[in-house]
Design brief:
By secondary structure, this protein is of the alpha+beta class. The chain folds into two domains: about 150 residues, Gcn5-related N-acetyltransferase (GNAT) (Aminopeptidase, 3-Layer(aba) Sandwich); about 150 residues, Gcn5-related N-acetyltransferase (GNAT) (Aminopeptidase). Helix content is about 30%, strand content about 30%. Helix 4 links the parallel strand 4 and strand 5. Helix 1 packs across helix 2.
Length: about 325
Amino acid sequence: MTLQWRPLTKDDVERWAELLAEVEKADRAGENYGVEDLADDLDNPLLDLAEGTLSAWDGDRMAAFGVTPCANAADPVHPMHLWGAVHPGYRRRGLGRHMLDWAIRNTPVLHERRHPGRPLEFHASVFDGNEGADALMRAVGMTPVRWFRTMGRDLAAEIRPVALPAGLRIVPYRADLADAAREVRNAAFTDHWGSVPHTPESWERSIVGVHAFRPEVSHLVQDGSGRSVAVLITHYYEADTRATGIREAWIQIIGTLREWRGRGVAGALLAHALAEFRERGYQRAALGVDADNPTGALGVYTRAGFETEKRATTYMRRLVGETPVG
């Protein structure tokens, strides 16, 4: 078998979506992608199409792909994540190893251009049960460092209202609140592993300017002065509905400023959003969470009726430098 290896182009999104649909049929990870979502990914200014993507082709069929975008910042380290997959019909032929070797070799080059002199960590995630991928990660010197859960809940189940602390109110997302929402997210996620702050450009490009963003079911919490203290951003993936027949609201971001944590703000915001999802015809809600999240988020989601549905492990290998102290 002779495959052609080349970077992805914007003309490849339909074949890319076909590959990912075959991967989902085999792996049942609950990951469905439409051409619009993939086009958004390739439009990312932090992704170098020529050097940060690679795909394998058997004629006009995509057999494998890898994508390694840079991050906005490198404080204290620059986390670069490989997203890749191999078509089920082409597995156990060395394509995954080829992709990993390429990424490990190439990410330091991309890193040095954007964040010269900073430490670089190379990350990749594997859903639980994929023993072949686990073995492959370990074979290239990667170590499991973090564990994540995908949690979901049926919106037909009871949604218990939660009262906000006195003096706070929930307001719908608006374009003029973009900076406030971004600033709350950045502040709330400073103690989240692997998180880097969003710039105005990356916020627009990857959060509120993408096809999946749903402003009508996204919210902020404000105090009496109009200062925002919490944010919830919702995405909706039409490809999921086409695959499952279920309209699922994906909570892309939920965060509360540190000084307001432990006072019921996140629980009230989440309950409000769940009720609105149901009112607008969504049937499920889902989100992702770091199992070691230091903010108590896992408990908030569990109390709101979310249950763990999938688990994934993030593997890491240090490629450049050491982690700064402090």
